[in-house]
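[Automated response] Your request has been received and processed.

Submitted sequence:
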Amino acid sequence: MNRQATVHTWWCAIGRPVSWLVVGSESAPARSRFGSIGDGRRLCSAFARGLFLGMIVLGGMLPSARAAEPPDDNAILADAAARIEKHRKADAVARVVDSEGKPIAGATVAIRQTRHAFLFGCNIFMWGQCKTPEQTAAYQKRFADVFNFATLPFYWWSYEPQQGKPQYDRSEQIARWCRGNGIHTKGHPLAWNYSEPKWLPDDAGQVLALQYGRVGDCVTRLHGLIDRWDVVNEAAQYNRDMLKSMAPKLTAAWEQAGQIEFTRRCFEAARSAAPDATLLINDYDTTEACEKLIERLVDGKGKRMYDVIGIQSHMHGGIWPDRKIWEVCERFSRFGVPLHFTETTLLSGEPGWELADKRPGFKWESTPDGLKRQAEQTERFYTILFSHPAVEAVTWWDFSDQGAWQRAPAGWLDPDMSPKPVYDVMRKLIRQTWWTRLDETTDAAGQVRFRGFKGEYRLSATTPDGRKVERSLQVPTTQPAVIQFPRNPGG
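Generated structure:
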């Protein structure tokens, strides 16, 4: 069995089947670091020896799979199109009938995808905060034209600068705008000790109570508007010296509670506030340290406390090699939950970390070569991730260079909100290449068959005499459906 078949078989075992769909039956400096990939190489060596990997229990099942050799460097990208066809599309059959359920032959069916199932996202931190109203309008329009997923800011120190006065109103405003534009939302982060509110007390016990309470309050208040959360951010290396300096009270409280216990308590608070929410553990660390933390993030009954694993991929210094991208996906997919690449960055200027701070007077701007490189590398990175069946989302970090982290040229838009080459390349990829738009004609049985990218659709059927009916469709779906015309008033 080749590697793709192994992954596919395993992914089916946890409830992600790619199956034939019948529609129409009447009955359906902070982060300037990346981990070693040595663990991935050791894992691949284990694969070669034919070892078995135990999987995390999911839904009462314990799926396991015999891992095969990874694809070679050239095949990772070369075979991506075939993997995308296999994992990101599904077959469908639509049946057009009259008011009595009899098939209508010769009807034209316009098949239009309206939204991806895959989450193509970006943080939306500059929403409503651009320098001019015109830039705000351009930011929002271009965001909605390409993305279906947005990450909203919940950094405690800036979200609640005065105790008891969190910025819920702005979050609700952004979330409602997203809902109106068909964009899913996520809050980031509920707990992170990169900085801390100035008003935190000195007592560690009180700090912990405030932190756990904050988690529950945010999830409760935004329930129904934001139901995905990065609950704990960067827990694997939570007690680095830098964090002890930047957030001394919160880091000390975390240390007092214990690395795992603090993380568990935050997840307990979030789950209690919204049992149906999607909860992420998010980290830049892709080493064994993070894997060990995730292994221990279970409740008293051994059930995992997270729903999704978030993987950061800030690549200010240059794109990861294809093999590292693939190995990271493979190693973390063993936990049996979807993977989200939560913070992705590639620059359109000089590569490097914190160059604007390291070089006084330096303007970190796009260059002709950098613009070309950013577009090419971003397309490559997304193509590999979109082709891996465990990946469910990719989020870019900063849509525009205006207000970008580290003041780096990381956005898909220039500071004036005009699109860079990467925006045009990625919009074409997401909304054209990986998008389904077809026109078909029903056969004698009133059916049309098509294979489309998973997501939401609008089907419009027109009979030979000009009558028209529309309906929505989710691909794939277990709910049979039919495009049925009402009784002709004239007949």
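Summary generated for your ticket: The CA atoms of residues 358 and 396 lie 24 Å apart. The chain has a mean pLDDT of 88.
If you did not submit this request, please reply to this message.
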